[in-house]
Amino acid sequence: MKSDNEDINGELATKFLKEHTKNKTVVGISAVFYAMLATDAIEKVDILQKKQVTQIEIVAGLRKKLDKLYEFTEEDGAFKIDLDGNVKTFENDKKFLTEVSNVKLQLTYFELLYHPTAKGTFAREWKVNQKPFRTTWSTGWYINFLKYEQKLRTGKSKLILKFLDNETKCYIERPGDNLVQELPESAAKHAKNLKSIGDFFRNDEEESFKKCIIEITKRIQPDSIEAKFDECYWNEKKGATLPTLVKRKIALFAQLNIHFDPEEKWISDETRKKNDELAKAEKPKRETETGES
Description:
By secondary structure, the protein is α/β, with parallel strands linked by helices. Helices cover about 45% and strands about 20% of the residues. It folds into two domains: about 10-135, no CATH class; about 160-290. Strands 11-10-9-12-13 form a five-stranded mixed beta sheet.
């Protein structure tokens, strides 16, 4: 979603986010919940009955509420609005403008970033393990933090090692999800020590490479690790100069239980079989080093 000069392409980012909310459910808490109060849309929501509202209904409800806010009356420094017979009073301009800003912000989000097939549900009071639980802005932050730190899983995760000519990129991928996720900070600081795999091999620094990968996996506990190689590592027809070097040291990946794209032509069946055997032999050692069980 970046242009050649590394600036974020707003149009592509908006399209990407909208597509990712297609047929998805949005749970609104905190500021979103307050923006939705006294709208036609929130009256249709029933958590227990699993009744939700569409993006179109959400947008219509927020736009109607915003229009009502613009029709305020002011008296002795207080601001009053009539929401279909329900008169709400804001004791000062700060609280009133906060309400206007929040409603306008949520309206903009739902109009620009959510697909028309997306649905929404909104609540502040929940029950968790049969006990009352109130959601605030910190709840959303904490859930996101847990997911980012790989402590809250929505499915299996895979650590991807993308070996380019001059660098190695790491990210997290989940099966069936088009999104990729950057490493959490605790793992990213170790990923910064990863050079290109060619540099590690040329300088006989396999142990340094192993240490980096072990430290990363300790922190994100991926279900699997997959290596993706740039053509410079295997396509001799396009001038690759590294296949011989990689073939000679490829057993290192078996020690770390790193899988390869089966399309990598330079990995022979014999080598693949040998790698599988090494992986089985090294697995108990790797589990001890990474803390896996």
